[in-house]
Amino acid sequence: MSHVDHDDGKRPVLTAHPLQRVGAYALAFLGGARTPEHLAPSAFDDAVGILTEDALRAALVRDTKHDQGFWLKASMSFFPNSKMNHPSNAKKDDEEIRTAVRAWRRCPEPGTWPEAACVLCGRAAVGFYGKKDVPLAESDVYRNTTPRGHQGMALCWPCLCCFYALPYGCRLTGGPSIALHSWDERFMSRTVSRRVERSRQFIALGTADPRGGSDRETLALRALRDHDDRLTAGVELLVFSNNNRGQTLEIQSMDQPLAEWLRLSARLPARRRGFRALLRAHARPGRPGVVGLARNAFRFTELIAGACARYLTRHLDRGVIRSDSADLAELCFSLVIEVMRMNQNEIDEIRAAGGQVAAWLTAENSAGKLREFNATLKEPKRMRHWLMRRNLDALLDSRTSVAGPLITEEQFRLLFDPEVEQAWFHRQLLVVSVVQRLHEQGFRPADRAEIAAELAAEEQDQPEDLVFASDEKES
Ligand SMILES: [Zn+2]
Fold it and tell me: Which of 304, 318, 440, 457 lies 20 to 30 Å from 211 when distance is taken between CA atoms?
């Protein structure tokens, strides 16, 4: 084992373990430093002192149901059955508990250190640590770190203290905790510092965050919105519990391009209006749009584009183009270009086709025709047929106000060729661009009121149904 100098033994280093990294940043902030590298040895001791004092205060509460029992309760998901929250504390006096908690959180004497290196950073380990001290989350990612014959991981003192500081860098719910992680160090530094500020209050007060904890994905969206700089890496959401009743770890990831797009969309003045429409497009009764958007962002990018298309087409049946259509459509295309990296030529082709269809619909000035087009969306065959029909009409009718064919051969290929894997997505984009162009052209069809009335009539109960449902006997 190499010689470890005194200072080096009191400085957390960033390792490959996401939760250790969150804890390292949290420890740094508690010591008044921006990053773990900036944490001086004396500040390291101060930070560890804060952790111990907070643990002590919680331990003396003894009862998790007490008004100030929140941190004690939350600690069960980090340090189950430790000296801090051991069931036997109920019968112990204050002094006994103080002594036990201090001993638990003290660096072991060098004479007791094992001949082992810290599994995370390689420095001299001060002992082996199990789930009483470290979340040993049940995930393949973290397996195989426990040496044969030992109940835990070999850890050095700073790495161990990072795990003691981890709760401060998490959203504490009392149940599973939520941590946001990224390999973008600047993002980590800012996000964890904000989190530490909040968590420290609740840990000190022993009360829960009144904002609740159910919307885990929105945590990521808020952090992205609050970040000033371009992201250099994606973000991960870690939801974990070290509780005796079951250790869990769930990891959700968002790639850098999408994370950066969401950050820009929430911040850039030019995209703000589109972003508000994006949230509207993801809203459901009883569920805010931000939750739906955040969930989609951790699943498939295509789901976001799909939600935009559905929102934009929702009222086409009535010949109504929403006032926020153009902004949302533009935002949708930025997603396709910046995140999905779709070929620019193909996008141009599809937008050109959308422009032609919109021009034709505007010339017809008919909500009925728009409704007809909208009805083809669910069936590629019908859409194809509709477009071919309009193409023929345009060729045969010299009065047509649309120059050239409605759709070119290349555009047909992009939209309907079974060889084109993304054809279904291209059709969604076609609709997005049609709606965008109709909005730009101020589409207000003459028969709008008529169609709306027709639809309203269709939605009314059929006379037969009314009779069937009434008590009248049939003659
Ligand atoms: Zn270490």
Answer: 304
